[in-house]
Amino acid sequence: MATRIERFHCTTCPRECELTVRLAPGLDTDGDIEVESVSGNRCPRGDAFARQEVTCPVRVLTTTVVVARGWAGDDTVARLLPVRTAGAIPLSRQHAAMDELRGVTVRPPIRMGDVVLDDVAGTGVAVVASCDLV
Amino acid sequence: MNSRHDSTKTAFDVVVIGGGPAGMGAALAARRSGASVAIIERDRLLGGILRQCIHPGFGLSRYKGELTGPEYAQHLIDEVASTDIRVLTECMVLSIEERSPSGRPLIRAASPEGVVEVECGSIVLAMGCRERTRSEIKIPGSRPAGVYTAGLAQRYLNMENLVPGRRFVILGSGDIGLIMARRLTLEGLEVEGVYEIMPYANGLNRNVKNCLEDFGIPLHLSTTVTRVMGEGRVEAVEVSRVDEALSPIPGTERVVPCDTLLLSVGLIPENELARAAGVEIDPRTRGASVDQDLMTTVPAIFSCGNVLHVHDLADSATMEAEAAGAHAAKYAMGLAGAAHDDRRPHAMRLQPDGLAGYVLPQRITSTREPVAVKFRVKRPVANARLVISSAGETIFLGKPRAYKPSIMESVRITPSTLSRANGDIRVSVEPVTED
Hints:
heterodimer, A: 134 residues, alpha+beta, five-stranded mixed sheet, three-stranded antiparallel sheet, elongated, B: 435 residues, alpha/beta, seven-stranded mixed sheet, six-stranded mixed sheet
């Protein structure tokens, strides 16, 4: 088996470096993908991103949750609260996280950063409000 | 402070029209410069389009971290709330006039309390842009329900809790279209594919990767929608491959069943107010023609953010707005005199050339301060360099690198470089050939 090469853009910052990752043939003794080298990155964050991306890609998930009707405010101001995962979660857990969040209803007042759901889809990452709703 | 807290008549040094990422940035910078400031916003809340942009990717430059649109807006809203900036919401500006005999600008706006008149020393336009619609790209076919601009669908889904369809085709690979492809997929709706008439994606690479590749959504380049089909509701669209002249190739038609067509085919600065006030519009940007201080051709009226030219990132719109707000404050408080002393008898006009599709500012009247020269390329190029020249002499030469139309470029030109200019300035992006 030959060395595999993957090419993709870094999404860490707006510079969008085009990364080239060389992967060793097969897996290492722990059964993990072994990265031989990362090139094309202009900063250390690109190197870390590339290694994460070829082993377990992670993303911040954003969506909305329903705002309970009948709170003191006018419900036409906001029917939905935008939320985000506090940190990145595995890409493979996004759909499970969406399923969990579909059942969540929130009641104002809410401040940006308030926890809406802790440990979404077994990731250990909380889902927090993206803005105030007061 | 010279604001009078009367319900219908008020006066401020600087009035900012629009309360989005540009407007709030302009207002904060003007206030920091010592001016009394008001923001006039037509929606009920500040935040502008950021309120429906629930995805991450904001703040990478300005806040050094990845924020969502609402978070980015909330930071600015909190900053505005910590000042005495007056915020007039649900208030829509109808006209900008000149008050006689002072000659100061007078804004007339409609609010729930009736017509409001606001006098000011200067105005910052920050009204943003709106989406191009089906009528502007002239897709043939029937006119059923189910054709939306991507941003409208985004508002329905993210703010109104309404689902605009079940099976989507997206025309245009602009960032909003790419982001909606992911958003719809996460909500359990079907996105058949994204179609792009150009041979390259129009959005940022991060969005192609995180919004399409992550979900296996196909991107069909050099392909466009050539017919909308359906009675009452969209039932299908016909797509065709296009040739190098972007004309559909007969025989390549394919019918794609769907109930909704989203259009992500470009943005247009919303300049009706500016035009009515006599501001000269650059046909290339469809925004105001401005000088190095971001002042339009009408004295006392400044412009910034997406109403000036379509930005790639909210961060760059806010940062540009901060410059406009600071200059507007200086002008309103009569401090612009120092710069005027140094103003050249004739403005140097900037012209785009080569692959540069437009250039900002359109004119330079003072070379005291460094100038941020901004432009976009017309098509992607693997290796090109920025060449700024005047009277046949090159005054600035950039390093060869790749350029993409999705990126708004900005380069700082120093006073010493500008002092070498003699007359008009040509801003060109020129391909570098290996030889």
